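Lecture notes, unit on protein representations.

Consider one protein chain, 446 amino acids long.
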Amino acid sequence: MAASNADGGSGGRGSGGPWRNWAGNVTARPARTVAPASAEELAAAVRGAAADGLTVKAAGTGHSFTAAAATDGLLIRPERLTGVRKIDREAGTVTVAAGTPLKLLNETLAAHGLSLTNMGDIMEQTVSGATSTGTHGTGRDSASLAAQITGLELVTADGSVLTCSAKENPDVFAAARLGLGALGVITELTFAVEPEFLLTAREEPMAFDEVTGRFDELVAENEHFEFYWFPHTGSCNTKRNNRSQGPSAPPGRVSGWIEDELLSNGVFQVACSVGRAVPAAIPGIAKISSRALSARTYTDIPYRVFTSPRRVRFVEMEYAVPREAAIAALGELRTLIERSDLKVSFPVEVRTAPADDIPLSTASGRDTTYIAVHMYRGTPHERYFAAAEQIMAAHDGRPHWGKLHTRDAGHLAAAYPRFGEFTALRDRLDPDRLFANGYLRRVLGD
């Protein structure tokens, strides 16, 4: 499931207005749009669409770069299916409606002294959109958002509402945690949570050769390690997040604004705009930008450390490669940029995840490193992304489901050992492909 920034619809049937994702690279014109407030309303909408011969897709908040949520049939909007439904301290879980933004979930958990164990670096997505496309952060031991799900509720193609967990409909639960919207429409999710803790973030510039030379050591020594490499330079910025006994010491109001808003968004927006207008200026801008980095350390509750605002719009491709292949793949990407006339204004992001047991997870069955490439919105990205994709595919890479890639079902079936398990379940739950669209036909087949 991906998403939308358009105005919300009503709970009833209405004509579908145009739908556009966050990056602006995907648009669709659904025949109908509904915003149900309950599983019962959603199930009725699904049955109605099926009776009228319309396909069905659910949208979140638009942060997928693929057309995973695009439809010319019935578009289900998230804004009325929101809110935290139950906090079970004894079980260590929280149950939340599928359309709830991660921001609201994080703030509500914090108000109750609780936290997710790990999360991605933005919190604008809905919980269902984020998990269904494989959103992840970085972690030595803790995995993606989908791997933290302990239960879910799913409306299937016949309008049934399935409750799923490791004990109830376990085969559906195993796959639907990261289901691309292909198995049905999720109405609620239950996540494992834990008592709130503190994280100390240590951000520090480091040379590319040092980071790559020490990569295994840095991953092993830190609970959450990631780094950004600035193309056209030998410079990186590293971030190490580890649990702390405190005390809390968040960034100062002024210094935090300078780092997170002025430099990371304001100045970077200007630099990207200049680079788009004058590509030849990009290497020089990159060198200046990388030299402007400074070290900082701060301690805060998890979501304030894991996430940060992203106001500069871009398009992105990310590949998950086996952990042991990461540095070779990154080195080839650096060589590619150095030996070509490509001008890349966005840093390359590198994160990790442990193996998990979700059939279509990019980390399914193997310890993983993620390598993400970005281009400023409106800048031609096709040649850069195609060349990067060729490198990643040669290292047995798996594309992020919500980010740009060209892979199809034939390629992906070979990349995922449990691909056939997922497609067989899809055949059982949605034999008539009520939840299909062009993207799913490409990546999962018909």
